[in-house]
Amino acid sequence: MSNDRILAVVFDMDGVLTDTEPIWDDVRRGLAREDGVPWPEDATDRMMGMSTPEWADYLATTVGVQGDAAQVAERAISRVTDRYREHLPLMPGAVAAVERTAGRWPVGLASSSPRRLIDRVLEMTGLAKHFGATVSTEEVPAGKPEPDGYLRVCELLGVDPRRAVAVEDSSNGLRSAAAAGMHVVAVPHPAHPPAEDALALADLTLDGLDELTLDRVAALG
């Protein structure tokens, strides 16, 4: 609608549309366990939002998983891909939320997942046709909490980030969207709730995607 002050909505993927953060965590922990290295207490939270090169380097250099970053990334991504083939868990209301939102605004995706997994998820869910732009943070200079991914999606959609809404769940994702100057909707994942300082950056906090109504999104403008 031409009178909307909101011009686009950009979703995160893992933890917002797909309930796949536990899969990533399980796979990465499994690599450390196989290689006989301890799992740092803060590793899971540290890697949320990192791009593929960033988290792979973290696993290789900080955690001590065997191989260089490229080898670690390939090990992890291959296993995650296999898990997705077995079962791709979606967050409640995810498909309906995207379809509902895309009926009114251009919709984008800013994800820390590698490109091949983004494309696989959107194909498996039948949602690909709704997205005008999708960006993996491996395709921009820095992952979340830096704003690069969100800024690139807004650029591809042709909208000012200040007139776009980001839907996020994680601390680094919320920080990334806020740093991009977007309106921020938080849908915290119950298993990995964001830090209080990150949640405070949100303009709106919801208990689930069913609460992401068109009126609520429009009101952010």
TrEMBL record:
Keywords: Hydrolase
Pfam family, one: Hydrolase
Gene Ontology molecular functions: hydrolase activity
Keyword Hydrolase found: yes
CDD domains in the cross-refs: HAD_BPGM-like
Alphabetical list of Gene3D superfamilies matching this protein: HAD superfamily/HAD-like, Putative phosphatase, domain 2
Lipid biosynthesis in keyword set: no
UniProt xrefs under PANTHER family: 2-DEOXYGLUCOSE-6-PHOSPHATE PHOSPHATASE 2, PSEUDOURIDINE-5'-PHOSPHATASE
Protein's recorded name: HAD family hydrolase
Species, as recorded: Georgenia alba
